[in-house]
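Annex B. Sample input.
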Amino acid sequence: MKSLSSLSFALCFAACVTAPDSNPPQPNDEVALAQEGESAPGSDPQANDPQATATEDPDALEANFLREMGVEPEPEPEPVVQNAEEVAEVIEEVQAAVAQPVVNEGVAYPAEPAQLSVWNDPAAQRRFEESYFAESETTPEISDEERAVLIEVRDLLGEDKSDKAIALLKKESNDESTAIFDYFQANIHVQNGRPEEAIEAYRIAVNRFPRYRQAWNNLGRLYVQNGRFAEAGEAFTKVIEQGGGSGEMFGLLGYSRSKLSDPLAAETAYRMAVLMDPGNTDWKIGLARSLFEQRQYAACIAMCDTLIEATPERHELWLMQGEAYSRSGQGVEAAKNFEMVDRLGHANAGSLNSIADIYAREGLYDLAARSFMRALAHDPKVSEARALRGAQYLMGQGAYEWAEEIVGAMESYEEEHFSKKTRKDMLRLRAALAVELGDPNAEIAVLEKSLELDPTDGRTLIQIGEYKHRQNDLESAIFYFERASKLEGFEGEALIAHGQALVREGRYQEAVPLLKQGQKLKPSDRLATYLETVQRMAKRGS
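Annex B, continued. Sample output.
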């Protein structure tokens, strides 16, 4: 018995050897023609006579095959119906073969399911198999000689000799031959897992016959699977121009446009896909995603509601809706969604940091700190900047205890978990917390450790200078301010800090030129007002 793949090819081959027909057979004609003893309307009643059953010879079988596909063969002796058991067995094998998968590999979807379910959908696979069948207006014609070649190819495929079939097709191909030769080569390459060779063959086919709709559609599918989204869009556009387009095709077009950061075009394609294939969840998620990317958050939220109701276990829907809630200012609702993602076991550093940000804005500082620390535990490198910003925000709100909790959690990780910049920022933040908590010894210890990490860190030099001044050591403070003023990017800040230290000592005249220079390098309205006050004080003291 022939393999299922070979039988599938044998079935699909039949359509490609057919000349165009203005009256194609109806969907049930092939079954009617295959049933033993059943006559079509107007046929000879003797065909139903069991006594008339005999074994057909090969020539008669080929004549029947061509007549079924709409091609009238040369007059031959009247065929005899094949044994009923053999016919039934062939029909059963063909039906099983058509259901076999052709394309099994998928591409990750924008909303992050493992792969597009369409690749493994039996209906979609059948549609791909059926793409072998000819469509007279959009499929090339073939000559009698070319039909003979395809019959030989059919026989090779029936024997599971696909390499020999390809070799024969290549041998017979030339500048004048039918594009069906190239199309067949491409389909064989697809089934043999050779996408690049298949793409090349499909391209040759559509160059020979630009209206070849089936070839354009299959080419588009392959482009999507191989991440060539711009080319996929071009191929699917050709299908539409030739009057074609299925729900699957529009869905893949929407996916391609989404990958090309064209959410408006993606939305349009996905809406067509949903209209034509309303049972496909992938296309609905894609539509929701395109709405999100266009900042149509209310529409995205509403669509996610429907999708979540049908499939509450899909964490990517909760996550997308949570982001839409967050960006539309509905923080509490967003937090609920992100917590649900965590309960489903799919929380990541991004979702945990988002929860922390929401809790911080809502004044729930303890929950915010814990969420920042959970995000750190999930992925320290991804979360380091968010955790530092969170600690700085909490410190600014007076939540020193919880800010210190976050810094302490970061300090528990090995140095290699964080960048050098992050480690320096951690030390500066720790020093600032020491100031707020009234622990000067801890402050200077942290600052000196930070300076050891980077002796050219101007900000740390300024902080040490300010510490020295608070300890009534103006000379040492000035020493650090002057060091910082010689570092690029810190000149203005160091001059201002130096001048302010002199003002606090009542040395206004010495402070004025420093503050003026600082205003030039780092201008601000607040500093300008401060400078005017210092200048008045300097005049009074002169």
